Amino acid sequence: MSPDTTMTATAPAAQAAPRKNTPGAAGGPRPRTGRIRRIGLPYLLLLPALLLELLVHLVPMVIGIVMSFKELTQFHIRDWGTAPWAGLDNYAVSVDFDAPVGRALLHSFGVTLAFTLLSVGLCWLIGTAAAVFMQDTFRGRGLLRALFLVPYALPVYAAVITWVFMFQHDNGLVNHVLHDQLGITDKPSFWLIGDNSFIALLTVSVWKGWPFAFLIVMAGLQNIPRELYEAAALDGAGMLQQVRRITLPSLRPVNQVLVLVLFLWTFNDFNTPYVLFGRTAPEAADLISVHIYQASFVTWNFGTGSAMSVLLLLFLLVVTGVYLALTSRGRRTAP
Amino acid sequence: MRSIRAAATGAVMLSLALAASACGGGSSTGGGSNDSPKELTYWASNQGASIEIDKKVLQPELDKFEKQTGIKVKLEVVPWSDLLNRILTATTSGQGPDVLNIGNTWSASLQATGALLPWDAKTFDAIGGKDRFVDSALGSTGAEGQDPAAVPLYSMAYALYYNKQMFADAGIDGPPATWDELVAAGKKLTKDGKWGIGMEGSNPSENVHHAFVFAEQHGADFFTADGRADFANEGAVTAVKQYVDLMAKDKIIAPGNAEYAQNQSVSDFAKGRTGMLLWQSASANLTSQGMSEDAYGIAPVPVRSGSPGPGKQVNSMVAGINLAVFKNTDNLDGATEFVKFMTSDTEQKILNTAYGSIPPVKAAQQDTAFNSPANAVLKDTLATSAAALPQVPEESQFETAVGTAVKNLFADAAAGREVTTASVKAALTKAQQQMPTK
Description:
The complex is a heterodimer of chains A (335) and B (438). By secondary structure, chain A is mainly α.
């Protein structure tokens, strides 16, 4: 990834190239040194970022990958050097879907995938709808916009803890409204344990995620020229047709990034399920991040946990790669 | 330009993906030293009703220690939800406290990591010898045949707490001594929005403690003699079913308890919403919740028949806190000195009185302060009818696996689904499959 980052940063530097030589160099250096300096400077400026990138991302990742090839159980965690190499054993255990560990991982993967697709879909839908409706000016629009962004601005922990209180069986607000006031359910439901936990998780995730979609789409909408709508209206296009023929196609580049970001965030989300359910999530809401956490921390087997992390990483890389390939091809063929 | 932007987007996306799934750490080796002889870091477990209360209890004692030895102790009270993870992180990184409290059931698991200083005869002599401590407490300090990984600090036992007024109102003569009597009493108490007994269905540790005691009463163990997991044997299945049936079949536990994990059952009991509570050393906690000591009685946890004792008459685990020295300490002598101080007769009396626990030190236990009726029950239980949880390296995994299985069974019961022998057996089998294979 670092060469890519370099590329973006070189772009402005290259534009600045035609300017005169750096001032202060009395008499002017020889042209060659000047060129080296000009070319070298961007890299020098990048160096701190590159080092930090290595330190924060790459080194831990490499350690994680090394760990996945070790038998890093409780007997060896104090001194990793003594942990025997496990070869591909940790991976074999993780993907052996006939055995309990692999089956549980597969189940967790399925739950996560379903959860992610639903959550991203709903976040996008609600976010886009809200952004489109908020496009016209009306009294109180600013206030509503600010209000919509609150879930996104709140600290995750505080927000999810509040949801935990609301989802409680005995004194929770959700049951109070659904059962006591509206009488929709025969008896108070459990939201934090059992099968309903999936719905609870999805609700919180969408509540937390849609304002981001709203924000991004709203920004994207600012770039669509008003004349397009006016022309379409003159041609007799209704609201729905305008959305379908003008808004959505114009938002395409924005949506491509938005959906990918939402997908990755949701798929990897750890805080929401962890705060909602604690260390052991109910099976119906056993998201893969918590599952891996449990495989490492609760069973003290960091080797298998790392192997699962690496598998997750590979999966997300493939998804991201395929997605980018598909969408950029689409972009090239687009007018 | 477009492709550059696409590449940049890709790069950002990739780093997001990588950042989110990366996992890392560092390792370190080496034993203890005496590089910083004037300072100690101490991680205390949360024993009082709140972390603030713990600080108030402990700080004066630490000041006393500093006066005596010139060693400054930096105190951190770690909540239970974090403690084991913190210890694990400290173990993997080698960056931890000098002295720390551990749940005594984790002793063997942590012992296996080699992170804690083994207490051989010589180290024990430095704090006055092994025979100063009660045997049952020493039985929960690590695997048999190895030097203990820690020293007993506070001892606790389960007891049955019951609301005297509610018992009188329901016409129940005295505390139940057998489970049949408990269920009968529970049924009488369960009415008008009040319930027979409370428990913490979503707290894996709590579940395991009860599952263990019930299993002992059925003559069953969760580990074979050679230390292999054996969760789904007949006795264990019967035991877990009997426990979950208090909610599923006998209906003397409110279904809402299935999601309790923050000691809500203690406040339910203190507020008179439930008539009974199975808890370890609850007195101090109940007092801080505003329940006066006259309002409740304390009795031994019921057995199947007869009276509590060893073997099938076991009615509590050996609960408690051990004090351990982190092997990587940079103040080995100071740490030993601190353990000596904390387990001295005087400090044992002060601390165990403050926390409502029983001193595991014989001499301190003789003190009249520990002769109240409540403490008499706990002392008796510890002396005659408490058994230590399995002292095997996989104990901590066992707590999570079986505790979670029971949690899921309670979730079934709460949702009105039937809990059968088959479903209990399936849950326990699944728990066993999660255990590391040897």
